[in-house]
Amino acid sequence: MNYTPHTPEEVKQMLSEIGVSSISELFEDIPVSMRPASFDIPEGKSELEVIRHLQELASKNSGDLLTFIGAGFYSHYIPAAVDAISSLPEFYTAYTPYQPEASQGWLQAIYEYQTAICHLTDMDVSNASLYDGGTALYEACMTAVRINGRKRILVDAGVNIIYWTMLKCYTSNLSLDMVKIPVKNMRADRQNIYKQLDERTSAIILQNPNFFGCIDDFSDIVEYAHKKGVIVILSVYPISLGVLKTPGEMGVDIAVGEGQSLGIPLSFGGPYLGFMTSKKEFVRKMPGRIIGRTLDKHGRDSYVMTLQAREQHIRREKATSNICSNEALCALRAVIYLSLLGKKGLRELALINLDKAAFTKECLEKIPGVLKVGQPPFFNEFTVLLSHNADEVVHKMISKGYIPGLPLGRFYRGMDNYLLVAITEQRTKEEIVKFAESLEAVLCN
Amino acid sequence: MQLIFDKSKPERTGFKIPKKDVPATAKLPDNLKRKSEINLPEVSELDVIRHFSILANIHFCVDTHFYPLGSCTMKYNPKFMEKAAKFPGFEDIHPLLPQLSGGGILTQGCLEILYHMEKLLNEITGMDAFTMQPLAGAHGELTGAMIIAAYHRDKKHKKKYILVPDSSHGTNPASATIAGYEVIVVPSDKNGVMDIDEYRKHLTSDVAGVMLTCPNTLGIFNPHIKEICEMGHKVGALLYYDGANLNAVMGKLRPGDIGFDIVHLNLHKTFATPHGGGGPGAGPVGVKKHLSEFMPISKVIRRTDGTFCLDYNYPKSIGYIAPFYGNFGVIVKAYAYILMLGKSGLIDASEKAVLNANYVRTKLKNSYKLPYDRRCMHECVFSAERQKEKGVSALDIAKYLISKGYHPPTVYFPLIVKEALMIEPTETESKETLDSFIEVMKEAADLAEKKPEVFADMPDNTPVQRPDEVKAARDLNLKWNG
Amino acid sequence: MEVKKDLLYTKEHEWIRIEGNTGTIGITNYAVETLGDITFVEFLQEGEKVAQFQRIGTIESVKAASDIYTPLSGKIISCNPKVVESPEIINSSPYNEGWLVTIELENADQEIKNLMSPEDYENYIKSL
Which residues from chain C sit within 8 angstroms of residue B470, using beta carbons? Predict the structure, then answer.
């Protein structure tokens, strides 16, 4: 099946207007010697066949395991209204709103997204989104370097290990010194951090809750860092901001994070949503698109892409970033989600996550074979120290219908018996109790 | 139009959180608690639906408007792709599952798609290996530039520069810079393609790579392209193909056959995944064998028993470009598209894309200056220079088109053409749509001659008219403050 | 386009007015026309030492962001606060109220030969 509407008669007419006798004449510029050595693509199919094939493939994946895993990507419930709006073709078949008069819908929606993210984080400005939390963290790093010209970046080991790996990859060709600061008891080690915060340092990157689920108040580190002219970057989990101290309240300079928990499906790795916010004074150093509000010729409120002079299509090699597209549709989902939940809903949701996690801890602690649960205080994720190798436990739990968490041995030496467990509002009391029972059965065999 | 925040009424809710069913109550230390108000709107679900539905209506999209944005390939997004991507077996899978012991077997469908997609893209482009990780075209360019850097570092080459033509998309030089290179711009010749003599002059032994697109951003095929690749290889440079314009050449040209070492594709352009208002996209990168060891990890491989799994055993890999395997939700759609169109469908897409663009070019060449008066490929670039002499700029023409219900072509790109109007009709548009568009363009040219003053008031039927971009940049208002 | 006679010029369209040991720097009418409405300016710090043709700031308009380079070496004495506050002054008065930076000159005698006279600049912009 193809989607070209041309009838043979129309093709003939068009070719004659152009002044050629066949379509192949239009490709004469490509010499025979450059034609494909092969083009062995299977022949096309009907919609019925393609859908059936994909259905088959989808059924080979297990989406109905009970999820107790997070590690930065969480299984929250997505209200139906989010899908309903983001499936509107006016939103999803449009392009980047370069022509404001033809795109006020998108422009206003992104302005509302920017507002929502700023209010969520208590930061001054937000851009229109970046690819994901990891690239957002990298962009934050580069923004800090642009601000103070220094070349050393400190990264607390509590930052998501996947993001640390991405940061190493992105900065490998730049003359930046990436320094990892080990955690102490799974928390940011102040002593070590203060020792490392010096005038050569451009920025320090922290995460809250951190990768191990622990929550903290980094206001003290922020104060100390600022004395040394160091930019503080905080990576945050949006749902947790329903109850946790915000980056703005801590005085952080740049706050970024993964917005997947705001109404975006897990989708086997993407698309996701990187959000980036900063203090007012850094707005011109921020990468990515930004939507601004202005007035039109007749004094009406209107929205436009602004500060484009920083972007690749104008500044080219001097651009703040190479980024061209953002994750507009995901940002739309996020603003719809936040609007539905609203002021009260987000707080309630965060509290329920907190409470379910506390309950899960209680259930797990009762199990012989569970040696330690978490390093409180935590939000909805914590580490569990088992009496057995965590990989093996995971394997057995999967066959019982659970994804019990992320075994940490693969990422951290000496942590082979640690499991990182996350709980969201999706898990009922019964499910949690049964989960604990299954885990007990596995550990005691 | 009111913001969703303006519609807020205290105590309204749009979503009910399930009641707490656990006996525990977490105790949060006071210093860790949020003290500030959460200034999100308090609205009902209907408020949200109505608000955003209305926003959707003051908006142009491919489903409702002809959208000939050059360089963007705004082809029709077939609906079956949306259906395919929404199966719970795709949407609800946690990306860490295949990385868990016993989890791989539960993600075979996803892994199979990634595996087959790699094979299909290899065949379409003539490359040996593909990574699906890059999350957008520009991201793919960066990945490619980093692979170039890793290769030269491994071979202990001292390389400093990347060459790009002056007609290149801005993401090319921007990406090269992030990979640690200095960019040298090579001018185009009078035929609109990269000047081969200038190229030769700049091709010193410290050039790491050359980033090109073919056809170029003017829609013109460079007849020396094979020679360009050979010359580059002679100085030890790698050739990078920006696949943004692949829609012109599917089945007619494969970058891997003519000497390119690295390729990126834009799934949201050539492979019809929706643009989503500016994202998400996907920019998979393909390489020839000699570069595959540097590709990002993980890679999906097939075991002898036929099952699929993730392989991380590439010590020279550049690492993780993305947190996982790429924008899987987008990749599924492109995969479905390739299966649907198949060999003849892909070839037909390119043929009709080139047919449509040449038809528009032929019909408008008397009304607008054609800086390169020759056959084009899938897009054609006009200049509104003639109209500008009467005071009507490319932007004015764009605004007029909006008032007539057409999304304008790309304006002011590529930079080497003054008052550029870059038109890419795509293959999914019918002759009658093109004819109407041509009529309106002719009308605009005519008006520019006879009544240039009307353009200042264009567009005259949209919710806003000529927003003040200077004010937007001077008096920054980037969020609602209540 | 008017080219002021009491100034010296650079290829990047900066002008400098030399009075004793002080140089006042701005951008020319040509630059202003190319940039369009200027929306933002930022400079290096006062007191900073700069070499000839080193970057001393950035000017942004809706359609472009351009770096400003100093025509001569010296130490930055002051940056015009009025243009930071109201960048449009640069558009309306690029040679007077829209001045950008003053510097204490260090090596003017040696470096002046690298600048263009008003006649040279006039010919230069004609060729563009």
Answer: 36-37, 39, 61-62
